[in-house]
Design a protein that fits this description.
Length: about 325
């Protein structure tokens, strides 16, 4: 099949760096954008492809280089060395691992656009006097999250959440301020390490009407997530999860992002900056497409009647 896209070239950095798109070699070559991904797995791959595709189609036709950390910090030094050698006009990071690694490099002054990260302020991913930063976060606004809690469980008054103060404390405190506007009061339990999460949930469920989840690695891990969802099911406690995988495992509901659109949104920010906007003047954005996932089997187990409007609205439904 014939393709109008230029044939990609490959950088000599093993599997770490692949040139996704190269502008034709000419005296007036366009800008260079480096995309550094935390991993090429699942949502990271979806977002990365969307960013690269949008840049390939943009009028500026930048040369796009991608580097994959493969989920390992040990890949970082080689990638950083190659970035210093290539000296791109702009760096795009996909995922928190890539973003933290690039921002920790004190030798870098290149403007940065992040994508696919949670809690950029809490993670200290924002602009500072030495580095211009903007991007697209995965955070669904707290107001929207709590509105959905109220819609899903209208009779709920006490909203429970597990968290680690150092990781998601600011998020929980912001939710505490917003909760009364939805007729809710926030009840919290601090979790110092994942091994304590299930016990803490058992204690929390004694005091609340519904459990709301925040993405906290001290609470939700591959080892604890299934146990937390199962504990809530046994107690007939509505639990609002973090992903469609949680809903399929028995959580009542989740709000989730369109990762491809997050990638396109990130690419649009990159184009704005290549066209002359200063990264530090471009506000950090949240996802513009948020979808609802529902588990109606769980709702039946809990004795909840989910409003027909919510079922019709949901993009992912387990029946």
């Amino acid at each position: 099949m014939r393709s109008d896209r230029p044939f990609p070239r490959v950088l000599a950095l093993g599997l770490l760096a692949v040139l996704v798109s190269a502008a034709p070699l000419a005296a007036s070559r366009g800008p260079t954008v480096a995309i550094v991904t935390s991993s090429r797995v699942g949502p990271f791959e979806t977002a990365s492809r969307a960013i690269a595709d949008l840049l390939q189609q943009s009028p500026r036709q930048p040369e796009v280089l991608t580097f994959d950390l493969e989920g390992e910090r040990s890949k970082g030094p080689d990638v950083l060395a190659e970035l210093r050698r290539m000296n791109p006009d702009l760096i795009v990071t996909v995922g928190s691992l890539a973003t933290a690694m690039i921002l920790a490099d004190s030798t870098q002054r290149t403007p940065l656009v992040f994508s696919m990260v949670l809690y950029p302020r809490q993670s200290e991913f924002l602009s500072n006097p030495t580095r211009a930063v903007t991007g697209v976060a995965l955070d669904v606004p707290l107001e929207i999250q709590l509105q959905y809690v109220h819609r899903l469980v209208p009779g709920a008054r006490r909203l429970g959440v597990l968290y680690h103060a150092g990781e998601t404390g600011l998020i929980v405190e912001a939710a505490r301020r917003i909760a009364p506007s939805q007729g809710l009061s926030l009840v919290t339990r601090a979790v110092e390490q994942p091994g304590n999460a299930v016990t803490a949930l058992g204690e929390l469920m004694e005091e609340v009407d519904v459990v709301w989840s925040v993405a906290d690695s001290h609470v939700f891990t591959p080892q604890t997530t299934s146990a937390l969802i199962l504990a809530a099911l046994r107690r007939r406690m509505p639990l609002i999860g973090l992903s469609t995988a949680h809903v399929k495992s028995g959580a009542l509901a989740t709000l989730y992002c369109d990762y491809e659109d997050v990638g396109r949104q990130t690419g649009e920010l990159v184009v704005r900056i290549l066209d002359g906007a200063r990264a530090e003047d471009v506000p950090v954005a949240g996802p513009r497409k948020v979808s609802l996932g529902l588990n109606l089997r769980t709702a039946q187990h809990l004795g909840l009647d989910v409003a027909p409007a919510l079922v019709a609205e949901a993009r992912e439904v387990v029946r």
